[in-house]
Amino acid sequence: MTTPIRLLLITLFATLCGVSTAQEPVRIAFMDPLSGGFASIGNSGLKQLQFAADYFYNSKNGILGGRKIEIVPLDNKQSPTDTQIQFRRAVSEGIQIIFQGNSSAVANTLNATISRHNSRNPGQEVLQINYSAVDPILTEAECSFWHFRFDAHAIMKLNILTDFIAKDTAIKSVYIIGQDYSFGHVVADNAVRLLQEKRPDISIAGTEFHPIGQVKDFTPYVTKIVASGADAVITGNYGADMVSLAKSIIDSGLDLPIYTFYAAYDGITATLGADGKNKIRLIHNEVSNPIPTEERKAFIRAFKAVNPDNDVTQPRIINALQMLVTAIEKSQSTDPYDIALALEDMRFTNLSGEEIWMRGTDHQVFQSLNISVHTDEGIEFDADNSGFGLFTEYSVPAAETIVESSCQMDRPSR
Amino acid sequence: MLDVLIFATLNGVVTGLLLFMLAAGLTLIFSMMGVLNFAHASFYMLGAYCAYSISLYFGFWVGLLVAPLIVGVLGALIERYGLRRVHQSGHVAELVFTFGLAFLIEESVQFFWGRDTKNYQSPDILDFALFTLFGQEFSAYRGFMIAISVGIFIGLYFVLTRTRIGIIIQAAITHPKTVANLGHNVPLIFMGVFGAGTALAGLAGVIAGPVLTTFPGMAVVLGSIVFVIVVIGGLGSLAGAFIASLLIGLLQSYAIASDVGMQDLLNVFGIDFPYDHPLADLWGLTLPQIAPILPFLLLILVLIFRPTGLLGKREE
Lengths: 414, 316
Fold this sequence. Notes:
The complex is a heterodimer.
Chain A: H1 3-23, E1 26-32, H2 39-58, E2 69-75, H3 80-92, E3 97-100, H4 104-120, E4 127-130, E5 147-149, H5 154-167, E6 173-179, H6 182-198, E7 203-210, H7 219-228, E8 232-235, H8 239-251, E9 258-260, H9 268-272, E10 280-285, H10 294-306, H11 315-331, H12 336-343, E11 347-349, E12 355-358, E13 365-366, E14 369-375, E15 389-396
Parallel strand pairs in A: 1-2, 1-3, 3-4, 4-5, 6-7, 6-8, 8-9, 9-10
Antiparallel strand pairs in A: 10-14, 11-12, 12-13, 14-15
Helix pairs in contact in A: 2-10, 2-11, 3-4, 5-6, 11-12
Chain B: H1 2-33, H2 40-58, H3 60-87, H4 91-113, E1 129-133, E2 136-139, H5 140-162, H6 164-174, H7 176-181, H8 186-212, H9 218-233, H10 238-257, H11 262-268, H12 280-283, H13 287-290, H14 294-305
Antiparallel strand pairs in B: 1-2
């Protein structure tokens, strides 16, 4: 074969390949509980990711000059075992980016599985986009080059939450209740530690752990809270465990502030309704009402037009997707290694007009942390169409949320 | 300490009586058909969701009456056109049928009502504190739950032991062929009992929904515990189910209220383990932490030492 013809063939081949990849969508797995007790959170997250992908990219020119984003839902039933099975499936389908958020136990499993897989299968690496699992270990002792967290971890949140509690001089004793697994214990241990540092006069009235998703009735626990004489309750509960706990506290006529991580949306706000007004507070990133920018308002309205029964509960999913796509565009690659390098130390202005920072040393995002209260006053965008929603009372800029990390990242060499 | 004790007892009684409403239907169905109805807790869930939807339009009280009826009729239809056909293939087929039914109901509920927590509220008229002790309120709704459950127990007991229908049902449990030979329609009795049993489960769902929250996992949370009660109480024994329900309700409630753990037990024996011991997690266990598995522990103990259950007569 003469050289010109060979060249021509190569060019032709390359062009054909180029054309075929240009049509191929970039596939992103969404691995969270889509059935079972925690299905409502998983499905709500899926709708937000799906909508964000369509709204920002698929309805326009796509990414990388015309490729669409395809979200592939994988139901892990919030179980580490099913997560392994679904991870195999994702790998066999050639998916290299996995969004996952619910349960730190699952995130830890996925992190370990991905690290092992990536070291054994160079060229077929997988990237973990953790949008919600907040066990600090994921960006501390177990930090990985392939894992990026787009939510503030539990200690960062507790740091701000305990600052807030410490300011309230009426609080003399605190009761901590949580789900009996890694996250619940992290919340309890660090809440105790931080409160003792900031307000040594606050006594810990009790620390209680209950099995996750197994408690029928929280009234027996509330009896203990009453007996302990606590002035406030801190809990990391989510899903049904959160609603039942709050309902039992309110039903028992207890007038205590309840400081939570996840007591809103997906039916929780509607169920708490007027009973929970001004009692329940959340620590979260991204401000709630009043929504700061027109861009985010437009996004929420567009989302509600398509999903009238859902809310934009986790703006961090949008941040994660936008930053991921920015990294893909910047590196002009869908290779997890290139994406990871581009994500490191990225500073990105999100829908709320705030610049957020992905720290390169441990892959932890930093943005403002806020404490919001469950109320029906000043709520432009409510939750569960209930008229009630979150009103941000206290906001801490990103710079003040930064904590040191002990992460010794094992960086792959290429 | 006294306040904790009193409220732990009250909480235990409320939970126990609620469990009884589920167990009553299950134990009757089991003793009659020889089959554990795996879908029983799903009917409970269905009751709660139906009542929630009805309460949106007609209020709580209509839901209280209509939802158990809907669930009961559905249960009877399932028995008539599903279970009865499967019955000919033996117990294993029936077991598998109810197992599949449980998934079907649960998925259907999620399909029609969605997966988020439903805002099912107790009626305003019961929205006050029945009494306040040591700073904790006991809501009127919980009192109402106790009243309904006790009423159901008395009513069922009366029907089963003092009426002609009850006598026929009891006879059909032990001697179905003889009852059929006497000219009674045994399949109709079976259908009636299945319908009544599922209606009771539905009723339990209706009154539990507002307190224990109406969400897709509500059947799973209660499902296994109801079987435990039926076995502990003695298969087919209503009184046994009643005692076992209260026993388990109180056991869990007291265990949660207690503050003792392995550490205290070891201290009694004067044993001390260092905190960095590999089995430190085991020594650190507390009774509240293991409260949810206590019923299963009790189940194993009962099966070992009294396989017929507390009041069971079947194997004698």
